[in-house]
Amino acid sequence: MMMKKIFTSLMVIFSLVFSQTNFAAIEITPIVNQFVEKMVKDHNFNSTELETLFQSANTKQSILKAISRPAEGRMPWHKYRKIFLTKARISGGIKFWKKNRQVLLDVEKKYGVPWQIIVAIIGVETQYGGNTGSFRVIDALTTLAFSYPKRSEFFTSELENFLLLCREEKMNPLKPKGSYAGAMGLPQFMPSSYRNYAADYEQDKQRNIWSNPADAIASVGNYLSKHGWQRDKTIAHKVTATGDDYQQALSEKLKPNSTVAKLKALNVKIPNNIPLESPAKLLDYQQPLATELWLGLDNFYVITRYNHSRLYALAVYQLSVAILEKTKASTGEK
Fold first, then answer.
1. Which of 125, 277, 292, 325 is catalytic?
2. CATH: 1.10.8.350, 1.10.760.10, 3.40.605.10, 1.25.40.20. Which one for 22-69+133-197?
3. What is the pTM of this model?
4. Per-residue model confidence as pLDDT tens digits over 14-27
5. Among this protein's residues, is 125 annotated catalytic?
């Protein structure tokens, strides 16, 4: 009877532990085998080593739950803005600027991207490195590649890129950590972005976007440059309009699909210093009592290539302006 009680107690404890566990080892299913075969055929990986690696990875329910949550991009602008345009995020940006000033100036000179835009992106992404993610990238990508059919194709491609970058950079694939979606480091690069755009600022043959702000800064500058950033060009303008003709220019698309001249013909009031032939996009943003209109130019569109959201792009732009203004005020610059 005593042994039976002990066994029952152990089973209860095991059940409690198991019920609180939100992960399980990756099973070598047909879809996993198919991926392994592809990596062997296309990239000369060792099948046994990959199978062993996947047996060390975990499918996490917390990752599946997180990616199924409604995205911030579905918020109205006035709520979204409050998340990122805070005193803490602005003051954090000023501190990041002061700490990395020379690197930021060097990167701005090389790529033509204003330092405050780079700072704002890192601020929006990870609060200047304060929150780069706690999930193992291998767990995030295997979970989403093999257990999230809705976006399996995308995350399978990112898993492929992750294994390639680990080989290229001589990293242990079980070590890097990131977001629940597999985004990594201060700038939250997905593996494909890392392979294509991560930069080695110090020329030490390492692209360390996790703990080296210089590499992270250079990587953001390189990313925006490669996506078409135009040096010294206007990014965005808050505008107004008379009548309702302007509504013809509104759409969910992000790419500039009009020109300044055409928008002026729709009674949109745009500063005269912006060339009439400039490609432009009219965007509307929901405020509590009214709709706010913004003119997005080519560089604004480039920011949306970093994150495909007009809310994100305007948050980055407004944060960059706030950081620049506060920096100038603190140094007495004009």
1. 125
2. 1.10.8.350
3. 0.90
4. 333 333 344 455 66
5. yes
